[in-house]
Design a protein that fits this description.
462 residues; alpha/beta; Aldehyde Dehydrogenase, Chain A, domain 1; Aldehyde Dehydrogenase, Chain A, domain 2; 2 domains; seven-stranded mixed β-sheet; six-stranded mixed β-sheet; 15 helices; 21% strand; binds nicotinamide-adenine-dinucleotide; oxidoreductase; Ald_DH_N; Ald_DH_CS_GLU
């Protein structure tokens, strides 16, 4: 067990103002592996002051130099890739291969993309007799969740730094060790003191203090809709910019002409990856009634094959929440065809890959985000019915459409109220804008759209 006592503020690790700590638990064996400081309002204030003081110089740093720091950051993340992957496995429970390729690998791609964008983006443009300057918004408060602990930090910090903003990050309680490794990488990359700061702490204490701080110009939050709503209210009350990446209940629409086996197998893999703890997961599979029984059989077989290959959930609370949803699904009339609420192992926060059939659109498991390895399979009568079901939740983060003909899938995707749609298994693109329609959020991350979130415009007339 390692007891860390510092937080990264103004370019160095300094002790927390208060004595409280947060225990970090390995969800695979329930052992405490480390403690980190539970930051207070004072720590947040020190970090925001450092970020404010560093802002003028960083905002005035030529974009090419900001790009050079981001390239160095990307390289530092590459050098630490194995350590990052091991740490994500230890505190989140992600299987080693997923930890290496996605949790440690994706942030390298995203940091690299913002190194390129910082160098290439036109921070000035002409329109008529005006020059429009794209200037940094200012000090950013970033509040991140545990499910993709490094990706969600990098998807905020890299574009913010590229834009010329300075940042204070408050990472999730469950995964602060990955955030600490990121701070070390930032330091190694030669990012000037105060440009990036890290305060570990509890959401309602350190997170809230950051969102409420009068010297924070933009709050970027990823996490639950309940907390996102509060943060949105705080930010609008103070007339701050806000970006919210919230939950999802994405639909995987399998049209009658699709390759059913492929669509179902890829769909199950999408849900089970990261033990179902993915906001954009396709947790509702929509199948035409004529092919429904076949699809359910395929899905149950695919889920059963996962067996031991998925990791645990992040903590005991999430496991109980997910088990509760499975029980509720069955109580409301869904048919359990794989997995179930029972604990598959004695130790660790594991839940078996679960498939619920005969799910109808109004059921709780078809409406609420479960955030676990649970797939609901729904039946539709025709395309209009499928569209109504697909669009029939408060969320709209992602989705998928499968059809024999790509144009047919695209025509359906155009009618979906959601921020991303993968066509016939199209792969994740770290440059494509990511974000929600409806209650899935406000704003976009990644690529050039993610960069512009951190910019504001000033027009000069000649
Ligand atoms: P959460 O929203 O409570 O936590 C996310 C972040 O917000 C953490 O850093 C947390 O410390 C912070 N936070 C919590 N309360 C706060 C407050 N009052 N003020 C400021 N910051 C605060 O999410 P959770 O409890 O870790 O997970 C609960 C559910 O949220 C999950 O089951 C899932 O449905 C959803 N979730 C979604 C995503 C996503 O990517 N969209 C990620 C994680 C969780």
């Amino acid at each position: 067990m390692k007891a860390y006592d510092g937080m990264y503020i103004d370019g160095s690790w300094r002790p927390a103002a208060g004595p409280d700590v947060i225990e970090v638990v390995d969800p695979a064996d329930e052992q405490v592996i480390a403690t980190v400081p539970a930051g207070t309002v004072e720590d947040v204030d020190a970090a925001v002051r450092a970020a404010r003081a560093a802002l003028p110089a960083w905002a005035a740093t030529p974009p090419a130099e900001r790009a050079a720091r981001l390239t160095a950051l990307r390289d530092a993340l590459v050098a630490r890739q194995d350590e990052i992957a091991r740490t994500v496995t230890a505190e989140l429970g992600a299987p080693p291969k997923l930890a290496q390729t996605v949790h440690a690998g994706l942030p390298v791609a995203v940091a690299g993309s913002y190194a390129e964008l910082a160098a290439a983006y036109a921070f000035e443009e002409r329109t008529g007799n005006s020059t429009v300057l794209h200037e940094p918004v200012g000090v950013v408060g970033a509040i991140t969740p545990w499910n993709y602990p490094l990706h969600q930090i990098v998807a905020k910090v890299a574009p913010a730094l590229a834009a010329g903003c300075t940042v204070v990050v408050k990472p999730a309680e469950d995964t602060p060790l990955t955030a600490r490794l990121f701070a070390e990488a930032v330091h190694e990359a030669g990012v000037p003191a105060g440009v990036f700061n890290l305060v570990t702490g509890l959401g309602p204490v350190a997170g809230q203090a950051l969102a409420e701080h009068p010297d924070v110009d933009l709050v970027s939050f990823t996490g639950s809709t309940a907390v996102g709503r509060r943060i949105g209210a705080i930010a609008s009350g103070m007339v701050k910019r806000v970006a919210l990446e919230l939950g999802g209940k994405s639909a995987n629409v399998i049209l009658p002409s699709a390759d059913l086996a492929r669509a179902v197998n890829v769909g199950v893999a999408n849900v089970m990856s990261n033990s179902g703890q993915t906001c954009s997961a396709w947790t509702r599979m929509l199948v035409h009634r004529d092919r429904y029984d076949e699809a359910v059989e395929l899905a149950a077989a695919a889920a059963a094959k996962y067996g031991d290959r998925i990791g645990p959930l992040v903590n005991a609370g999430q496991r109980e929440r997910v088990r509760g949803y499975i029980e509720k699904g069955v109580a409301e009339g869904a048919r359990l065809v794989a997995g179930g609420p029972e604990a598959p192992r004695e130790k660790g926060y594991f839940v078996s890959p679960t498939v619920l059939a005969d799910v109808t659109p109004e059921m709780t498991v078809a409406q609420e985000e479960i955030f676990g390895p649970v797939l609901s399979v729904l039946r539709y009568d025709d395309e209009e019915d499928a569209l109504r079901i697909a669009n029939g939740t408060v969320y709209g983060l992602a989705g998928a459409v499968w059809a024999g003909d790509e144009a047919e899938a695209v025509a359906f995707a155009r009618r979906m109220d959601t921020g991303q749609v993968d066509i016939n298994g199209g792969s994740f693109n770290p440059l494509a804008p990511f974000g929600g329609y409806k209650q899935s959020g406000v704003g976009r991350e990644l690529g050039v759209h993610g960069l512009t979130e951190y910019l504001q415009t000033k027009s000069l007339q000649f």
